[in-house]
Amino acid sequence: MKIKLDENWTTKNNGYALNDSEVERYISVLPSPAQFEHAKKPFYCFLHFGMNTSTGREWGNGTETVDDFKIVRIDAAQWIKTVKASGATGVILTCKHHDGFCLWNTGTTDFNVMKSAYAEDVVKKVSEECKKQGIDFGVYLSPWDMHEKTYATPLYNDFFCRQLTELLTNYGDIFEVWFDGAKGAEAKEFDYDWERYYKIVRTLQPNANIAICGPDIRWVGNEAGQARENEYCVVPEFLTRAEIVSKSSQHSEQDAKSLQKITSKDEDLGSRKVLKKNAYLTWYPAEVDVSIRNGWFASDETAKKIKSAKKLFDIYLNSVGNNSFLLLNVPPTDRGVISKKETKILKSLGNMIKEITEKPVYEKDFGEFKETDGYIEFRFDSPKKLKYCVLKENIKKGQRVEKFDLFLLKENGKYKKAYKGSVIGMRKIIRLKGKASGALLVIRQSRGTPNLSHIGFYE
User: Residue 245's pLDDT is what?
Assistant: First the structure.
């Protein structure tokens, strides 16, 4: 086969400009310090737990009372130990879901866990366990509140801000604050004061990223664990407001279920064709949120279908390995623990993730390419049975690579194409098969000079 080494970023650049004012505009969009740190820990877990865990629902109905929360035992240490075994580096707890029941010692409402038979601060238990076991802690706070009487009045924004302030003040460092725009079709029309919410986060937790209905991390667009084929970090700035528009948000429990069928693979959010039509751009990486169950809360119904470790690993490669973050929901049961079956699956997932880079054949922190680096050849000390290649761009220099080819040097002395890729971004994990004594990486198209912070091949 003809590799066409003369067709690379230093020559034709696939017919696109390598350096001009437009390209400079694209690569000048960079992650904030908080976003840059977040990229180092791309996999973390959602803990959906609360009133719905006790009632066996996915969404509340607004009639619940504190007496409906019948859970009397919670093993937060087991939750965090299980999460760590999966390879995740943090958790986001549903401190308040749509039903309005609060899992912390709040002064804003009596509809909270302290008034229940359990009578202990769940947020405190989980946050302290995270600190003890060395992982990050984040919070989910539902703007929609079925229970609160001031909802849909100006007083509600004050109420919500008090709740947010409590969570961001009393439970240590927060790595992510997760908002959504879900609102029941029967809910009263009401505009949340998003800018005020963001200001509180920036003031009280300046190192936290605000996700989904927020300016730092965007929703991938489905709940099926599926990222796009080309998942960009640099996108039009208007996308930071997409999920706060009421018509774009979930309006029923059935809407939430239907989102699992959407892949959105054909959506183009960050190509040159899109960016050139938008005057304002931003660094806004995608987060893939998906549940280990066929539902977000633990119940007899959602226990009927639990994803295997292999399925979760495929999702990991398609998200973390495709320039995205992965938020995997792992819901504790009404017995206060993550089930034995899920615990076993998550441990297997953790082993699979660890094995990606466990046996390095070649690793290098590469840096900025030279004008002679239209392609890079690698030689191994002997034929290796390769399983993975991991590429990372130096995102402090923006997102640059747009197309590349990876070839493996086979035992017959000839190169065989192993992968045809597009974006790299924060991280690209490529599955490989067969023995090879070397490799060849050709960057075909780039926005400015490519800059890779890491190139690795693994057995």
Answer: 58
